[in-house]
Amino acid sequence: MAASKAIRYTLLLRPFQRKYQDDVVLPIYIPSPTSRQRLIIWVISVVLFLGLVYICWPSDPVLKIERMKLNRIKVHTLPRLAVDISMLVTVKVHNGDVYSMNYKSLDVAVGYRGKKLGHVKSEDGHVRAKGSSYVDARLEFTGIRVLSDVVYFLEDLAKGTVPFDTSTEIEGYLGLLFFSFPMEANLRCEVLVNIANQAIERQKCRRKG
């Protein structure tokens, strides 16, 4: 009987070696902006800055004659021809700024055919940012005795419309936190008032100065 040969297999174990032992870890690469990108960023920054300045730059308020109402008209024939006029003028003050506005005075003068009849000055007031305020001014004109003016006025009354000249001035300041900016505005208007419905049929305005 033939002797069997034992075959021995020997497993040779090699020590574990790191496959990537020689790898080098590099930081994340962020490319630097090119000259064109820097220019675009600069232009956008300038545009945003100019837009902010435009929005925050203080401006004068906008004035408008909103209403003129003749409350009373009285004609005197003795001792001479004269007219008493009582009227109510409503002025709209619009503040278009991002600051609130405080005005010290609002002066409204009314004339007829180039001659000043009189004026009235209102008390101080406040208008919020991007808001509007309505100011009523009551004017009393007594004893208008210039014959030519009275005759023209009576003719206009007969026609149903009376042209008036108005001059409106406002002074005050715009304020935000601890900052304040002085402001003033003025307006001249030619206003045509309908006697029947007490409405303004037409007005042509321009800023003085």
Automatic annotation (TrEMBL):
InterPro entries: LEA_2, NDR1-like. The keyword Transmembrane applies. The chain crosses the membrane at residues 39-57. Keywords: Membrane, Transmembrane, Transmembrane helix. It is a single-pass membrane protein. Pfam families: LEA_2. GO terms for biological process: defense response to other organism. Residues 90-184 form the Late embryogenesis abundant protein LEA-2 subgroup domain. GO terms for cellular component: membrane. It is found in: Membrane. This is Late embryogenesis abundant protein LEA-2 subgroup domain-containing protein.
